[in-house]
Amino acid sequence: MEARGLSSRLYSGATIAAIESPPKQFFLTLHPSTTPCKSSSLLWSPNYVCLTLQSFKRFECVKKAEVLDSVVFDKEDHNKPEVKRKKLAVFVSGGGSNFKSIHEACLQGSIYGDIVAVVTDKHGCGGAEYARSNKIPVLLFPRTKDDSGGLSSTDLVSALRDLEVDFVLLAGYLKLIPTELIRTFPKCILNIHPALLPAFGGKGYYGMKVHKAVIASGARYSGPTIHFVDEHYDTGRILAQRVVPVLANDTPEELAARVLREEHQLYVEVITALCEERIIWREDGVPLIQTRENPKEYR
């Protein structure tokens, strides 16, 4: 009866799904928005209450002094534009195993994005061949005396802009990224390194050289690091890491294989978050990855 009595004070609009009526007496507390509305309605049956409303910010069912439920209605929340599918450029210098795992994740729908270009400094590398076989454009950078078909830094930036690239992903690319590219894509260039930075990073630390150095140091743990790219080798802000053990009798090849398995998984997970716009920056400049389930939790 109390619900019927409220009907003359409710506003009409879009129908909300029926809410089961509590067995005992309850009250509805409605919080109107600033938008006026002309009419109202409330539907009632023995088992369900169905509200028809539009101009309320939220409503609450209250049993005694205790809030039983709360729903937020905010026009801005319902009209947020969907996250657009991202366009990715991948840089490779070798076989491109990380590139291949990223591409497969895009095709399978795990990553909400598409690889629109591959950039390489080695025209015949495995990663470039894989790109061509999958009809992905291949750009040669940097330009060299032996290959006039390569791009200058300015040409590369223009090409990536023309392709409307959102993010640049380094996957075993061995050249230093030019300042022009970093300035064009601030906080949008990622690299994966096969050790736990800041250890075993910098110029000359790549590929098997990294794993040999880790074993020689006596370190008990290693693993991949994903970081944002700045003007120097391996010094950008760390975004994600994963730890693997270094075993007593490891060879560099065995350690490399163990780390690479984690690289493939971690890079896909991070790029998934990147394309879903779940990367935020703390006030002190540290990037964090929000969980999909709760934006207040970080991984």
Describe this protein's structure.
With 299 residues, the chain is α/β, with parallel strands linked by helices. The protein is built from 8 helices and 17 strands. A 7-stranded mixed sheet has the order 9-8-7-10-11-13-14, covered by helices on one side. Strands 1-4-3 form a 3-stranded antiparallel sheet. Helix 3 runs parallel beside helix 8 and helix 7 packs across helix 8 (252-275). It is globular, with a radius of gyration of 27 Å.
Main β-sheet, spatial strand arrangement: 9-8-7-10-11-13-14
Given helix and strand content, the structural type is: alpha/beta
Q: How many helices?
A: 8
Helix content: 25-40%
- Biggest sheet features: 7 strands, mixed
Q: What general form does the structure show? A: globular
Element-by-element helix/strand order: HEEEEEEHEHEHEHEHEHEEEEHEE
What integer value in Å does the Rg equal?
27 Å
Proportion of residues in β-strands: 25-35%
* C-alpha end-to-end distance: 49 Å
How many strand units? 17
**Mean pLDDT, as a whole number?**
81
Low-pLDDT stretches are 1-80
Brief overview:
This protein is an alpha/beta fold.
Tags for this entry?
disordered N terminus; single chain; 17 strands; alpha/beta; seven-stranded mixed beta sheet; 299 residues; 8 helices
